[in-house]
Structures are given as structure tokens and as C-alpha cells.
């Protein structure tokens, strides 16, 4: 399915979206059902995103997710119930093959975008690989991650912009990174929610400036981004992970409709 999905998303606006982490089966399934409804109504390829484990939380006591086995069970159920493809993070090479049994897209977290063994293991699954650009990397330096994947036999790759470190506890987005990474020959996605994150900004956890999510999403689409990544939640203020930078589910249809229209204007 991965190759067909890659081709389906080529040349049209697509989105990866869902709660940051799999908080509960019920919340994830309800959110996915609503996103599937929105995707059908707007005729947008939509990939449900949620993580079975957030291994890079600020604090040892922070919520991480249900773990590999139960998380994959929930994602498989969501696929069956909604028909949506799914994307989830992997953090270890040994997770790649197991996760690829369920996920249509394997996501490499930004902090791990240079981990050779992880990239090679992901590439060998023949799934789509979405690599988030490290906050510490120039966009042109993502060619090395891309080369590792291609040299391992996988050309179905997306690169995702998610901001660059800007002093302490802050990020900034350079929209030039979108065409710079597209020049590497791959579609580029804008992560409009993690880009408004304030890393470690609340002491034991990260903060965020949710109000700027639409601004960055619109700017990125206008700059030529191929798709958008959004973490959404029915009640972001009560989310167990990344609530301050998550977008409200109830406002997601309006935002996606705007982005789809803007994409059409800029890609005709």
C-alpha cells in the first residue's frame, strides 16, 4: 500500500494529522473517525498520525503512550474502522519491521534524523519514510539522511520541516527550507504544530504557541509545501502530550479547507 499511497499524495495537497500520542483507544478512534469524515468531505488524502511511544519527552515522569504492542493494536483497529492509512514514530532499528506490519508511513523523529541504523532499518521495510529535519540541521544537510535511505533501497521519502533552534526554548521557521529540501528531489511537509513548540519552555515539559499554527501552515503552503503535518486533539488543554502546540480538532476542518484552497492557488 505504501507505494500506492506515495503516488496518491504526489501532486496534491495531503495531510498527516492526529493526537501526538495514543492516550486511549477510545480517544484515538473517535478522533480518527472525525478526521476521516473531514478528509472525505474535503477530498484530501489524510494519514492518521499518533505515537505508541514518545521516547524523547522532557521528563522521566511524562506520559509516553501505551507501548509498542498495544499501540499497534489500536492503530490496526483505527485503520480497519476508518480506512485511513497511519503514520507513527519509530525510535529503534528493531522496531521498524514490526511497526511496518501496521503503519503505512514510518516517521523518523527530528532528534534521530542522523541515526544511520534507524534509517537503514526503516528503508528496508519498503514503507514510506517521513524524516523530520533536526532542529540542529540546515535544510541542505538533510541530503545525507536522504542518501542513507536511497542507498538502502527506498526512494519513497518525505522530508518534514519542523523549525530550527533559535536560542533557548524557542524555534523559528525559515521558509527557504521548503524549496531547499524540495531541490533534493522529494516532497516536503510542514509540521505546523511542532514548529510553534517552546522546547522545555514549561520547565519539566515543552510549551507552545498554538495561536500561530494557522499562520505557519498557511505560510508554508504558500511557499510551496507539498503537505502539512498537524497534531490535533479534541481538548488540547487536557492532552497528555504536546497540548500547548496541538490544534483543536473542532477547528481542524476549517483550517484544512483553507490550506487546500491555498494549495490549489499556488500549485496551478
Automatic annotation (TrEMBL):
Query: Could you name the domain of life of the organism this protein comes from?
Result: Bacteria
Q: Which organism was this protein described from?
A: Paucidesulfovibrio gracilis DSM 16080
- GO cellular component assignments: cytoplasm
Lineage, broadest ranks: Bacteria, Pseudomonadati, Thermodesulfobacteriota, Desulfovibrionia, Desulfovibrionales
EC number assigned by the record:
2.5.1.55
Q: Which keywords annotate this record? A: Cytoplasm, Lipopolysaccharide biosynthesis, Transferase
Annotated DAHP synthetase I/KDSA domain residues: 12-259
Q: In which pathway does it act?
A: Carbohydrate biosynthesis; 3-deoxy-D-manno-octulosonate biosynthesis; 3-deoxy-D-manno-octulosonate from D-ribulose 5-phosphate: step 2/3; Bacterial outer membrane biogenesis; lipopolysaccharide biosynthesis
Spell out the subcellular localization from the entry.
Answer: Cytoplasm
Mind listing the GO biological process terms from this record?
Answer: keto-3-deoxy-D-manno-octulosonic acid biosynthetic process
The record's annotation in Gene3D superfamilies points to: Aldolase class I
Q: What is this protein called?
A: 2-dehydro-3-deoxyphosphooctonate aldolase
Query: Sorted alphabetically, which SUPFAM superfamilies does this protein's record hold?
Result: Aldolase
- Spell out the reaction equation it catalyses: D-arabinose 5-phosphate + phosphoenolpyruvate + H2O = 3-deoxy-alpha-D-manno-2-octulosonate-8-phosphate + phosphate
Q: What PANTHER family does this protein map onto?
A: PHOSPHO-2-DEHYDRO-3-DEOXYHEPTONATE ALDOLASE (PTHR21057)
Among the GO molecular function terms of this UniProt record, one is: 3-deoxy-8-phosphooctulonate synthase activity
In the record, the note on similarity to other proteins reads: Belongs to the KdsA family.
